[in-house]
Design a protein that fits this description.
The chain has 322 residues and is of the alpha/beta class. It folds into two domains: 6-51; 58-308, 2-enoyl-CoA Hydratase, Chain A, domain 1 (Alpha-Beta Complex), CATH 3.90.226.10. Helix content is 48%, strand content 15%. The chain has helices at residues 9-22, 28-50, 54-61, 69-76, 118-123, 131-146, 164-168, 171-184, 199-203, 224-231, 238-245, 249-254, 273-292, 296-308, and strands spanning 81-83, 95-102, 105-112, 151-157, 189-198, 210-214, 218-220, 260-262. Strands 1, 2, 3, 4, 5, 6, 7 and 8 form an eight-stranded mixed beta sheet that branches. The two termini are 40 Å apart. The mean pLDDT is 91.
Amino acid sequence: MPEILEFEEPIAVLQKEIEALGLLPKTASRDKEIADLQRRIVHVRGELYTHLTPWQRVLVARHPDRPGFDNFVERLFPGFVEIHGDRRYADDHAIVTGFATYHDQPVMLVGHMKGRDTKEKIFHNFGYARPEGYRKALRAMRLAEKFHRPIIVFVDTPAAYPGIESEERGVAEAIAVNLRDMMLLDTPIIVIVSGEGGSGGALGIAIGDRVLMLEFSIYSVIPPEGCAALVWRDASKKAQAADALKLTAPDLKRFGIIDEIVAEPIGGAHVDLGQAATLVDTAIGQALAQVSALTSEERLEQRYNKFRNMGRLGVDFVDEGT
C-alpha cells in the first residue's frame, strides 16, 4: 500500500476501517461494506487530487513510491543495455544511460535515478548528479546521434549535486556544454519530467524537441525550501514559495515551458504504475511520431526557437482559462 501523504488523511481513515473489517470473519455483509469503502476511497482520492495546491503537488512529485526511470524502462523499453562512464573521470550513478528498443525501434535512454531503499539512494546519490553524470549523458547522446537513434530522457532530480568536489570538477561548465550541444544534436529528443525537475540539475539533460510533464510532477529553477530560505529567510514558508514559483504542470504549460501534460491515474502515478506507464507510453509515441516526421532542418530550427522564446518579453503565453 502506498505511503499516505499528509493531505491524504481522509483516505488513511477509510483504509484503517477496511483493515479492521478484514480481521472479521468473511461474510457477504462484510465484503459489501469493504467494497463500499474502497469505492469511497476512489471518490475521496479523486476529489483531493482535483484540487491540489502547488505544495501538495510537490509532495506527490516526491512520493517515495513514485515510478522512476527503472520502472519505465522495465515496462516500456525492452533490451536495455546500460552505458557507463564519461571517459574522463568516473561513472555517475545518479544519471543512467543506455540503448534500448521502443516498439521495435532502437532508441537511446537517459534518466535520473534516485533509488528506493537506503542502500540504493546512497548508490545513486539521491538523484543529485555530478559533472561526470552530465558528461556521460552527453557522450551517450552523441552516440545516439551517430547511429541515428531518437533520445528519450526522464528527468527526476532535486538538483545537481552542490558539493565542493562537484564544483571542482566543473558542474556549471558540464551543464552549460549540455545545453549548447543538446540544442544541436541532429536526432529527435523527447523529454519527460516524471518527478522533480530541479534547477540546472534537470535542465542539463532537458533540452528537447518535445518536453512532456507528468500531471503531478514539478519543474522549477529552485526547490520551494531553498526559495523560501533565500527570499524570506524562513524555510517554513515553503508552501508560499511553491505557489510563487509556478512550478506545476498547468502553470508551465500555460507559460509555454512544456509542450504537453501527461495525465496520471487518480491519486498519482504511484497508485497504479501499470496505468501510469501506459499513459506515458501513449504520450511518448505521439510526440516521437510528430518529431520524427520533421526534416533535420525543421526539427533543429523548431527546437532552437522553442527555447529562445522562453521568457522573452512581449511573447504571449496561452491562457487556458480564457
